[in-house]
Each structure stands twice: as C-alpha cells, then as structure tokens.
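[step 3/7] inverse_fold.run input=structure_tokens len=985
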C-alpha cells in the first residue's frame, strides 16, 4: 500500500547512510554490537531515554490519510501524516494505535503501509529520522511491526530518502518478499523469511519511485515500479533485469495489480488510467474527467476503484469483467481521496476510502453507495484566524484562499468563553500584505508550477525579491503578511517561516504538522491556523533571538465546543471533556514502538488554569510558573519518568456465564508506588483493600458478584503522579429467573433562592429542589424499593445543614443503593480557583467559613460505594456582586479524575449561565429533567422507562430549545456504567 500526494515533503534530497543496515532489538542487534568498540557498545546497549512529545488526539486522524488496509478479520488500519497508525473495527470504533518515534515538524509522518499475507508483519514507511541512532542523516527507514501486538520488531535501513510505497508479495499463507519505493529513485526487495535481509536494489528510474508492487507470472516473481520519470517498469526478480518498460507523457504515482485477470493499472498526474497485462502489454486506456488521486483493486479483483483529486470529489468503481465499465460513483468525500481498500461481508462489497484535508474515512456499500460508517475526529481544519486583544477567532469552513475565509467562532483567552458574535468577529485583525511602500503578492512557479509557489516582495509596485517555495520550505505560499519589516509565510506540511526584506529566512515557527492556511497579527502576537486542526499563538518579539520559535500556547476546539489550551511543558486548561484530546507521545528510541498517554491522566499535576492565564498575560511560560507558584505550588513533573500505572488484564475481557461470581486476574505496572486501585462494578465501588500493597507487576485478583444480564467491571490504578487507563471487563450472566432487585434511592436535594444577603437572591432554585424531591418520591415502589429524601431549601440550606446532609448520605448508603445529589443555587471560585457552593449564610468575603467548599461534595461522592448521580445547577447569573468569577469546570473535573464511576449532569459548562424564567416555573435544566423523567418525555424507545442516556439526550436538546442555544448542559457517563433506568411510568 502507498502514499499518494504530489506535494510530498519526502522529496527532500537528504544525504543518507551508504551502508545497508538492519536494526533489530533482539538477537541481530546483539550480534551487531559485538563488532563495535567497547565505548560504542555501552552507548548502543544503554536503554533509550523516554521522550515525551505533546500531540493532539481527536479520536481520529488530524493529518492526511495516506494509506488504508483492511484485514481478514475486518480491522481497518489507517496511516496518516499526523504520525499515527490507527486500528478501527468495521463499526468505526478505534481499537488501538501503532506508534513509532517522532519529532518536531515532519519527522514521524507515515506515508505507506503493507501487511504480509499471514498478517503477521506490518511494514511502515515515511519520513522517519535516524539521527538519534546514527551520525548520518537518513529518512529512509522501514519499520517492521508485529501487527497483532503492535511491537516493533526491526528497522530496515538502506534507502537514502523517505519511503513512499510498500508492498508484500501475495504467497497465500505467507509473504516471501517485501518491496519498497523511495524518493531516492530506487526500489528495494527484501527477503521476508530471512529476517528481511536486503535481496536486491532496482536502480532503473531516473526520478522518485512512487509506486511498487510484486506480481507472480508463470511461477516467476516480477517487480512492477512506477515513478516521476513517467515510466512503468517490469523487473525480473530472478534474473535481476528490466524485462520491459513503458513511458507515458506524465508523472506516474499509482499502481494497482489484479492477480485474477493478470492486469496492472497505472496512473499519475493525468486524467486517465492505463491498463496493462502482466507482460506490460497495453490493454486499454480509461479516461476520466478529473485528475486521479488513487487507484486499487477490490479484494476479489472484480472492480477497479479510483479516487479524484479535484472538485467534484468522487470515488468510481469500474467492473473489470465488463471491460472496465463504470459501475458506481461515491460522492460523499469533500476533498481529495487519498487511500482506498475494501472487504466483503455477506457477499456484499464494502469500500473503505480516506480523504485528504478533511481526514474522514468512509465505509460504504458498493451496490448502492450508501454509507455504513463514517470515521472522523471531533476537530476540523482551521481555514482562517483573527486576533484582537484577548479574542482569537477562527473558521472551520473554507470560503476563500490565503487566509481570507470567513471567521465563525472566537475564544476569549481571559474568560475562556466561546462566541459566535458575527459583528465582533469582523472586528478581529488578520494580517496585512502592505507595509508602507512594500506589498506582497503570489504568482505561479516553483518545481511543480503551483499557482502560489512564488511570493513577490514588491517595493513601489516593482518586484524587489522573490521567495520560491519547494519541498524544503512549504511548497506553496498559502498565507502571508507583514510583521514589522519581516515577511511571515505559511505553507504546506507545517512550514511557517519568517523572512527579511531580501528574502532571507530569519526564523522557523515550529509546531504545526499540517498546512498553514491562515495567520493573523495583533502587536507582537501572531496566531496561525492549520490543517492539523490547531491554533497556535507565537510571541514574534523573539524571532531575532532564536532560529526556531515554539508557540507560547496551543488551542484546540472541537465541533461541539469542547476545548483545551496547553503550553510547551504540558500545563493545560480545558473544558470538562477537552483534556482527552491532547496527550503525550512517548518515544522509546528508534528501535522500539512508542506509547501514548492522555493529558487527563496528569490532572492533579498539569491541570493549571492559572499558569495558562499567566502565559497569555506574560507571553512566557517561565514567568507564568513563577507567578502561579506564589499562590499555589507548582509541581515539576518529568512525564517520561512519572508515567501512569498500566493495568494488564490476565483473564478474558468478555465473559458469558451462568455463575453468580467471577474472578478477574490482573497485574499493575508502575515506576512509582501504587496509591490506590479502583474497581467499579456497574459504577459501584468494590472493596479493594490489600490489592495496592502487592509489588508492581505481581498478579492480583478480584471477585465480583454478578447481576443478571449485563455487567461492566472497570479496573484502574493510581500512583503519586497519574491515574491509569481503565481496563474494562464485560460479563453477561444468564439466569432462568432474572434477578428482580429494587435498590433504595437516597436523595439529597438542595436549593437556595433566598440568601441571608438578599443581593444574592435567585428566583426558582428552591422550587427546583422541592420539585425534584417530589418527582423522585413518586418512584417509590416502582423502580426503587424505597425513596428516602432530605430536602434543604433557603434558610434550611445553611452550611452546617448541607454538611450534615452529606454526612447522612455517607453513613446510610450501601453498595446496593442509588444516590442522587441535586444542588441548585450560586457557585463561585476564590482567587485560587477553588469552587464553592453558596449556602444560605454565605458571605463572598469569607468563603472558607461561610460557604460549602466543593471538596466536601467531591469527597462524599468519591467515597460512596453505591451508584451516584450528581445534578448541579449552580451557574445562575443572579445578582452576584463584584464581578465574582464562577466556573464549575474544575469542580466537575475533580470528580471525573478521581476515577470513580459517578454520573454527573451540569446545567451548563465553564462560565456559562444557567437560565430561569417565571413562565417555566423552574430553571431550564431542572424543567427539562422534570419533564423528561416525571412526564416520561425522555422515553424515546417507548418502553416505559427513562434511562440515563435518554434523559441526557432530552435535557441537552430541550435546554438548547428553551434558551435558544444560550445554555449548554454537560453529562458525564463513565464507560464503566451500563445504561440504566432512573424512572419508570
């Protein structure tokens, strides 16, 4: 399989190692060490240091999808310029990642993959740097992974430049050969069965070899190669010579081979496909109205599949048996189709196709072009940016070139509010192409004759100098403008450069991995928007003192307005769910696979809204840390050595049984002492005393008493630095007589409308609490055996009574019960960011002594053994004086990141307002909840019960309707909790 993009950064003509080497971490590696001097032996044998690099993870690709493979078991493997390989199931759910060493800029981008016939080996090629392993620079490595385990077995090094295509021979049970194509103008053949020893090098082509395949004809093996010298060639692998070649009048980029009919299809920078037989005799030419971007045959060789590289984008199916008659067009892609594969299910052909700038993957049915699944991330390309004061705007929709697309949203980095105010967006600065008598414009040229490859610096209308873009500096001038007397230019593949008036490069702004579509300027602050879906902020005052400038802040905002802002060292601020979209890529050396750890795992140490705020104010992370440390201690964390624990499941992850109890075996790996092991059963805590005292990596076990039907068991571990990923076990207990168990519901319902200080008064918070108690009391004898309620409103809701209510919940609740805590009223933050619920007797000047600190609520919730639901409506606009800040984000995240299985529903997110109206009789959130459960309006499936997922959907939609989109509720339902009913008819 192969990489398919004309503007490939891999065309860089780099000096490489002349010696052919094969790196293996095990036996071969040891043999190599023996012939080295003793000093070098010590260096080679030393365990590589772990290097942590912050990366965006939107749960799908953020870079161009360069290759797709579908396995026999239905795994969909996709490779991307975002430096990741992702494995999905056919329903589009990501199963795992396969990672290798990466670096800044282009280092680590994946351009090509191939899977051996027995699916044992996954070969991966791309822009892979080897400078850490050798004094020589060589981007032409091939990584060989054990596909099932994701382990890196070998690194093949012989090519002198990047790998752009790979293919295994198809030999039934196993593959005998691997062929690689490179921009170093060669193709190489590797002996798979002999530890991937280099067997042969084909030096026929005069330019880059962009596509390679191995075919078998009359019992003999032949290599088929195609390249930028316009030639397709047939090479006899036994006799080692070119049997035949054919030259076309355009660059060749794509090959596909069909064993059943013995056809070879080839195309390139043209609007046609040429079909040859296995002797390279031309059979026919298939014309296209558009330039083609990829071709492949389906798994049964019945269809030739081709994608287009220009608008209107579509994928065409040609029936091979019917002389390549056009059978079907798929038109859902909105950008260049970069990769195609297929699979058959129930005798139906499904096509899997990946897009370019929009990074989506479709699975669709060939017979009617209907979409089965669409895999895409939560982010979008940034086509435009703007900035003024604290406001940064952006657009996710392309409407114009050179960064002139319309702005759609903005985020205020002082208040962290997201806005769609069109009038305010129009006031944001972009970047000027004029600077006194100087102007900037682009024109056609460069090595690929792109329309914007040449940037003209004009003085008084005359060209003073030009900046020509090629593969080494960005290919195109996608956006540009002036910063003082410097020219800032954004190009492809993450190139953001600064030039002086003579066209000399002054500095490189390093951090983006995708095309830079837009830049904007406000004073010394530059913002950039990229196809990698991030916005970055740069302090341009430093460009004269450093050659490589890194961003002071990085911003990502999802389609649903979940956001995260992070710094160079990994400190971050985020919305409730935003932190799951950034994490650490952990390099472990050239010869070892990399790992990934999400930032959310380091919540206790790296979640620092105060540091992010100070960076925005000072443009310096160092100064920001010093300022923040005066109020709250800043813990310095070495991510590479302070890794989260790893929970390894030693028994099956899926269990079907008639037994009442199951035992789950697992181990925990950690560099630090284990502080806690958390086991949840359907959201309820399981007693784990004694488990954490065992040594790291020793076997542990926990016994679970199953309920009838579906059970989800979650296992997590915490050390002093971070919390592990959770491991889930799905257990189904089948019983002839299904258990009918009704839990007891304990409800603590708190609402404050009338405060001791009348300036704080609200309208309906007390009515909300009373109505919630009344509604759930009606469920007694239905879904709950008993409903025990404690309601505190107004004067009764003072600090002491609220704390007594929390103590009551803590003492009374067992693992068989359900707890709901409802709170309505004001919530505010102190100067350290600590959140408080304002009880009736609260005084803003004495929060610690008069209000309820959020940790009191948090500690109660996280210590309960039962299933817990928190309903929080504490962000009312009200009449809070003095501009008191109120942001519930940190409070909610503090519960989520304890690892407990609590369900949390908040009336609004961040610092947004919670609205109430007299005619509603309640706040928008509470009214929607009461209608959803009490009036059964959330019973979407009409089964007489409202589940937690149904009420989440109803509340979200109804609040949006009532407030005309001004209020956005948030619900957190952990994966460890199966959907469950909270009310019945």
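[step 3/7] decode complete -> sequence:
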């Amino acid at each position: 399989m192969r990489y398919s993009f004309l503007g490939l950064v891999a065309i860089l003509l780099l000096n490489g190692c002349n010696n052919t080497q094969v790196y293996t971490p095990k036996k071969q590696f040891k043999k190599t060490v023996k012939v080295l001097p003793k000093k070098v032996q010590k260096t080679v044998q030393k365990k590589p240091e772990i290097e942590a690099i912050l990366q965006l993870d939107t749960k799908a690709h953020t870079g161009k999808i360069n290759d797709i493979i579908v396995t026999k078991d239905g795994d969909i493997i996709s490779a991307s310029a975002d430096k990741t390989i992702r494995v999905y199931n056919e329903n589009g759910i990501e199963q795992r990642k396969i990672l290798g060493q990466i670096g800044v800029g282009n280092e680590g981008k994946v351009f090509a993959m191939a899977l051996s016939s027995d699916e044992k080996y996954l070969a991966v090629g791309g822009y892979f740097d080897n400078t850490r392993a050798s004094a020589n620079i060589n981007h032409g490595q091939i990584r060989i992974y054990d596909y099932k385990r994701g382990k890196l077995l070998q690194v093949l090094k012989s090519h002198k430049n990047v790998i752009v295509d790979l293919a295994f021979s198809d030999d039934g049970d196993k593959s005998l050969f691997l062929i690689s194509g490179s921009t170093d103008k060669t193709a190489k053949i590797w002996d798979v069965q002999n530890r991937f020893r280099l067997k042969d090098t084909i030096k026929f082509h005069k330019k880059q070899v962009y596509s390679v395949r191995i075919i078998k004809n009359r019992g003999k093996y032949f290599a088929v190669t195609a390249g930028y010298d316009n030639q397709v060639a047939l090479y006899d692998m036994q006799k080692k010579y070119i049997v035949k070649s054919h030259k076309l009048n355009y660059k060749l980029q794509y090959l596909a081979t069909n064993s059943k009919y013995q056809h070879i299809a080839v195309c390139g920078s043209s609007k046609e496909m040429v079909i040859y037989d296995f002797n390279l005799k031309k059979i026919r030419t298939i014309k296209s109205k558009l330039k083609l971007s990829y071709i492949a045959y389906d798994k049964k060789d019945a269809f030739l599949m081709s994608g287009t590289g220009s608008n209107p984008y579509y994928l065409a199916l040609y029936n091979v048996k019917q002389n390549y008659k056009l059978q079907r067009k798929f038109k859902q892609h909105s950008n260049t189709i970069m990769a195609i594969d297929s699979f058959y299910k129930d005798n139906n052909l499904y096509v899997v196709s990946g897009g370019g700038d929009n990074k989506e993957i479709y699975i669709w049915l060939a017979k009617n072009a209907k979409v089965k699944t669409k895999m895409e991330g939560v982010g979008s390309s940034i086509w435009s940016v703007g900035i003024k004061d604290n406001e940064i705007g952006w657009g996710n929709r392309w409407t114009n070139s050179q960064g002139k697309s319309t702005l759609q949203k903005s985020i205020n980095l002082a208040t962290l509010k997201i806005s769609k105010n069109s009038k305010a967006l129009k006031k944001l600065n972009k970047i000027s192409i004029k600077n006194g008598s100087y102007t900037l414009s682009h024109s056609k040229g460069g090595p690929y004759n792109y329309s914007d490859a040449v940037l003209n610096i004009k003085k008084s209308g005359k060209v003073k100098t030009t900046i020509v873009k090629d593969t080494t500096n960005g290919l195109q001038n996608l956006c540009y403008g002036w910063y003082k007397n410097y020219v800032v230019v954004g190009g492809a593949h993450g190139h953001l450069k600064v030039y002086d008036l003579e066209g000399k490069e002054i500095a490189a702004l390093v951090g983006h991995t995708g095309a830079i579509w837009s830049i904007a300027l406000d004073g010394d602050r530059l913002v950039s928007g990229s196809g990698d879906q991030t916005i970055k902020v740069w302090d341009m005052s430093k460009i004269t003192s450093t050659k490589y400038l890194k961003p002071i802040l990085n911003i990502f905002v999802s389609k649903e307005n979940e956001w995260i802002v992070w710094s160079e060292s990994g400190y971050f601020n985020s919305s409730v769910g935003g932190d799951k979209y950034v994490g650490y890529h952990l390099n472990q050396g050239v010869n070892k696979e990399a790992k990934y750890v999400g930032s959310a795992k380091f919540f206790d140490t790296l979640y620092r809204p105060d540091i992010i705020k100070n960076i925005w104010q000072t443009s310096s992370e160092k100064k920001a840390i010093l300022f923040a440390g005066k109020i709250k201690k800043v813990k310095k964390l070495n991510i590479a050595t302070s890794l989260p624990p790893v929970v390894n499941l030693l028994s099956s992850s899926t269990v079907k049984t008639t037994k009442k109890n199951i035992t789950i075996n697992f181990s925990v790996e950690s560099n630090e002492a284990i502080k806690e092991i958390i086991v949840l059963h359907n959201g309820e805590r399981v007693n784990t005393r004694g488990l954490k005292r065992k040594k790291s990596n020793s076997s542990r076990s926990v016994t679970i008493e199953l309920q009838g039907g579906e059970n989800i068991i979650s296992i997590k571990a915490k050390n002093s630095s971070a919390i592990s990923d959770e491991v889930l076990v799905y257990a189904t207990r089948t019983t002839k007589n299904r258990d009918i168990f009704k839990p007891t519901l304990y409800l603590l319902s708190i609402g404050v409308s009338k405060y001791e200080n009348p300036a704080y008064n609200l309208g309906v918070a007390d009515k909300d609490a009373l109505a919630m108690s009344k509604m759930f009391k009606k469920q007694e004898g239905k879904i709950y055996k008993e409903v025990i309620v404690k309601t505190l409103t107004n004067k009764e809701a003072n600090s002491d009574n609220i704390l007594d209510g929390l103590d009551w919940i803590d003492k009374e609740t067992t693992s068989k019960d359900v707890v709901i805590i409802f709170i309505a009223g004001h919530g505010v933050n102190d100067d350290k960011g600590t959140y408080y619920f304002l009880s009736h007797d609260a005084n803003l000047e004495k929060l610690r002594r008069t209000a309820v600190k959020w940790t009191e609520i948090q500690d109660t919730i996280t210590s309960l053994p039962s299933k817990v639901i928190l309903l929080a409506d504490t962000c009312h606009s009200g009449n809070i004086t003095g501009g008191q800040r109120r942001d519930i984000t940190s409070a909610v995240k503090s519960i989520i990141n304890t690892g407990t299985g609590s369900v949390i529903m908040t009336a609004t997110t961040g610092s947004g307002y919670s609205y109430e109206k007299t005619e509603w009789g309640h706040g928008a959130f509470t009214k929607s909840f009461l209608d959803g459960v009490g009036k059964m309006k959330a019973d979407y499936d009409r089964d007489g019960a409202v589940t937690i997922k149904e009420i989440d959907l109803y509340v979200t939609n109804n609040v949006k309707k009532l407030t005309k989109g001004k209020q956005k509720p948030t619900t957190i339902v952990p994966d460890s909790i199966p959907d469950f009913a909270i009310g019945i008819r």
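[step 4/7] annotate
The first strand starts at residue 21 and ends at 23.
The CA atoms of residues 72 and 430 lie 50 Å apart.
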